[in-house]
Write a structure and sequence with these properties.
The chain has 397 residues and is an alpha+beta fold. The strands form 5 sheets. Strands 14, 15, 16, 17, 18, 19, 20, 21, 22 and 23 form a 10-stranded mixed β-sheet that branches. Strands 1, 3, 25, 27 and 28 form a 5-stranded antiparallel β-sheet that branches. The protein is globular. The termini are far apart.
């Protein structure tokens, strides 16, 4: 009998330990979806990405804090959290081994060289400020690099958008050298992080010579990056302004006007950031009623996502809920710096999470039943009021 009791206790203890191994944050998330891997095995160094789709956005309110990637035992899987932002870039290191440097002055502190660049969008140059004073790139626009600047970095850097594949560098150094200490990277926009989302364009309206058209995003909210339009052939090259309606109400003007159908994402520059919205309003001020000056071609968004390193293997689950939970330490975004492409993974249908535990009067339980907390507060106030009234009615002795 004692042996049987010991076995039962051991089994129960084992189940309790197994349940406790699942982190508390995972046990607060009531739903899960299977992460589906490609049928054909990709290269061993492939990074994957799980994106916030319309179902997840509706359940979580677009909050990445309400998502967790876990293995088949409910243990969290490391991932890089990708909040919507722009530009998204990857870097290809460039070699200066074959560059020929020539001195521009007698003291040897100004050097120049010409380089042929591989395909890409930008050129980033990094240098030690104690030995290199300045770097210039001919026929290239210097970009504001506040999105990529690391204030703690011991080296300075700048980003240019060259007009041609062949560039001329001019470097001013502190003392005469034959080769300056530079690190070059070719930066390319991650077009694979941008998605075209479904939209419904309402009939346009004229207010004098201003033409406005409202666009709804039925599967939103989406982190909208840009709108593309087809202009009428005889329309003047005047910007089509874009306003986005935020979740809490109110309109916000996008720093970038709508792109023409022939323009690339590089036209957005570094100032445009995705804005979470369900509705857009496009406006053109030099219209000639009743002819619409443009038609909406597409809406581009940057979905929030989780990037998964090549070391992770199936089975894998995405658990989620309607409230954010404490986050485990994620992987540094810098790990994606030289990753050329991210392969998206599909998600299965929603199902109940087997790890979900809703303790009565626990945090999750109360969050989903706000009326209980309200009733408790009202009851406490009623008790306090009754005590005060009783005390006042008591005769003085």
């Amino acid at each position: 009998m004692r042996v049987r009791a010991a076995i039962v206790v051991a089994i129960l203890f084992g189940l309790e330990v197994a349940g406790a191994a699942v982190p508390e944050a995972v046990r607060q998330l009531p739903w899960r979806r299977e992460v589906r891997w490609p049928a054909a095995p990709p290269p061993a160094d492939t990074w994957y990405v799980v994106e916030m789709d319309s179902l997840l956005a509706a359940a979580t309110g677009g909050d990445l804090g309400a998502l967790r990637l876990v293995d088949d035992a409910g243990e969290p899987v490391p991932a890089v959290v990708l909040e919507p932002r722009w530009p998204e870039l990857y870097a290809e290191p460039l070699s200066l081994a074959g560059a020929t440097w020539t001195a521009n002055g007698d003291d040897g502190t100004s050097l120049a060289a010409e380089l042929d660049l591989p395909p890409g969008d930008y050129l980033r140059i990094t240098w030690p400020p104690d030995t290199v004073h300045d770097v210039a790139v001919a026929d290239a626009e210097r970009m504001p690099d506040w999105l990529l600047q690391d204030d703690a970095a011991p080296r300075a850097h700048a980003i240019w958008q060259p007009a041609n594949a062949r560039v001329r560098l001019t470097v001013h150094v502190a003392r005469a050298v034959t080769t300056p200490d530079l690190v070059l990277e070719r930066l390319t926009l991650r077009a694979d992080r941008v998605r075209e989302v479904p939209f419904v364009a309402r009939p346009g309206t004229f207010r004098g010579t201003t033409y406005e058209q409202v666009v709804d995003l039925p599967a939103g909210p989406h982190a909208v990056l840009a709108a593309r339009v087809h202009r009428r052939a005889d329309t003047a090259a005047y910007p089509v302004m874009v306003d986005l309606q935020r979740q809490g109400g109110g309109w916000e003007r996008s720093p970038a006007s709508a792109l023409d159908s022939t323009q690339t994402l590089a036209e957005l520059g570094f100032a445009t950031q995705p804005i979470l919205a369900r509705t857009l309003r496009l406006a053109y001020d030099l219209a000639d009623p009743p002819n619409a000056p443009f038609a909406v071609a597409s809406i581009a968004a940057v979905p929030a996502a989780l990037a998964i390193p090549p070391t992770v293997r199936p089975p894998l689950w995405l658990v989620y809920g309607d409230f954010a939970v404490p986050a485990p330490p994620g992987l540094a975004r810098d790990q994606l710096r030289t990753v050329r492409g991210l392969q998206p993974l599909a998600l299965g249908a929603p199902q109940a999470s087997p790890w979900f535990e809703e303790k009565v009067l626990g945090t999750t339980w109360l969050r989903r039943r706000p009326l209980v907390l309200t009733a408790a507060m009202v009851a406490v106030l009623a008790i306090v009021a009754a005590l005060v009234l009783t005390e006042r009615r008591r005769p003085l002795t």
